[in-house]
Amino acid sequence: MSEGKVQQKQQARRAEIVAAAQRCFAEKGLHGASVADIAREAGLSVGQLYRIFASKEAIIEAVVSEIVHA
C-alpha cells in the first residue's frame, strides 16, 4: 500500500474513533465512558485504539479539537 493510502486510512480510522468517542461521551459522560467503550463503539480492540491514541486524554483532546474546528 502506498504511503498516501496508509495515511488516508489512518486519518479515517482516527476520525471513526473521535466520532465513536463523541457518542460515548454524550451517552455516558467523560468519566463514565471507558476506553473499552470507545473501542467497542468504533469496532476496534482496545489495543488497536491505543495504537492510534496513547491515552483517553488524547482522545478527549481530539474530540475537543474536532468540536472547536467544526
Could you walk me through the main structural features you see in this protein, from its secondary elements to its overall organization?
It contains four helices and no strands. The mean pLDDT is 95. 83% of the residues lie in helices and 0% in strands. It has 70 residues and is mainly alpha-helical. It is globular and about 40 Å long. It has a single domain, classed as Arc Repressor Mutant, subunit A, CATH 1.10.10.60.
Highest-level CATH class: Mainly Alpha
How many domains would you count in the coordinates? 1
The percentage of residues in β strands lies in under 5%
Fraction of residues in H or I helices: over 70%
Could you name the CATH homologous superfamily?
Homeodomain-like
Strand elements, count:
0
GO molecular function, one term: transcription cis-regulatory region binding
Pfam families: TetR_N
Keywords: DNA-binding, Transcription, Transcription regulation
InterPro entries: Homeodomain-like_sf, HTH-type_TetR-like_transc_reg, HTH_TetR
